[in-house]
Design brief:
Blueprint (H helix, E strand, L loop, with lengths): L1 H16 L22 H5 L9 H10 L1 E5 L4 E3 L7 E7 L2 E6 L5 E7 L4 E2 L1 H5 L7 E4 L3 E7 H10 L1 H37 L15
Antiparallel strand pairs: 1-8, 2-7, 3-6, 3-8, 4-5, 4-7
């Protein structure tokens, strides 16, 4: 049931984003060995892991893949099929979308504590945006099988992660709804000749 709700949220968010369906090659930075150290207390400060026990946090910190990406590395590419999401432990990323004319523009910036790519886990659709690093970044990778393993081992922890993802998707939708409502209101006001500070013209009596 939880996945059905999240899949619905993801599909609605993709409607706002206008996700592309073309397949593009994925180019990522070479990772640095050894694996970057991930501490449980780092995860405890991230909303995605909110409410998880110390035991679960220790297990996730020890088992999830973490990689260091160089500046300018493409973490994910719009249109690519994938089954993993990324949590930003350090560094800064930019989210890019390509217009119908082929122009790429920045739509968001991500810093430590943010996560991206969860929609491809939830609804198994192509990536809706390209994500690129602006500075050296340590990213935690969560694959679909990682969530499946958590589901089998600890149902409560799994449901908390699902709920945290749902909350973030809901927050993004509220922001998108507000932006669209403001945009439509501005268009209507402009077409009807209304401007801030002006008084509406009363209807004629005949």
């Amino acid at each position: 049931m939880g996945r059905d709700i999240l899949s619905g949220l993801a599909r609605r968010w993709r409607f706002f984003c206008g996700a592309r369906r073309d397949r593009l090659p994925l180019a990522v930075s070479d990772t640095i060995s050894p694996r970057p150290l991930v501490r449980p207390e780092q995860l405890a400060d991230i909303g995605l892991f909110g409410g998880l026990s110390e035991e679960v946090l220790r297990e996730l910190a020890a088992t999830l893949d973490a990689s260091l990406f160089d500046p300018g590395a493409v973490v994910m590419r719009e249109g690519e099929q994938a089954r993993e999401m990324f949590v930003v432990l350090s560094g800064e990323l930019e989210v890019l979308r390509r217009s119908k004319g082929g122009t790429e523009g920045r739509v968001a910036l991500l810093g430590p504590g943010s996560w991206v790519g969860e929609m491809s886990i939830l609804d198994v659709q192509p990536r809706s945006a390209t994500v690129r690093t602006l500075a050296p970044a340590i990213l935690l990778c969560i694959k679909g099988e990682d969530l499946d393993r958590l589901y089998r081992r600890d149902m409560r922890a799994y449901l908390l992660v699902v709920l945290n993802i749902a909350r973030e998707l809901s927050r993004r939708l509220r922001v998108a709804d507000g932006m669209i409502a403001g945009f439509l209101s501005a268009i209507l006001d402009d077409n009807m000749g209304f401007h801030p500070g002006s008084k509406p013209t009363p209807p004629s009596e005949g």
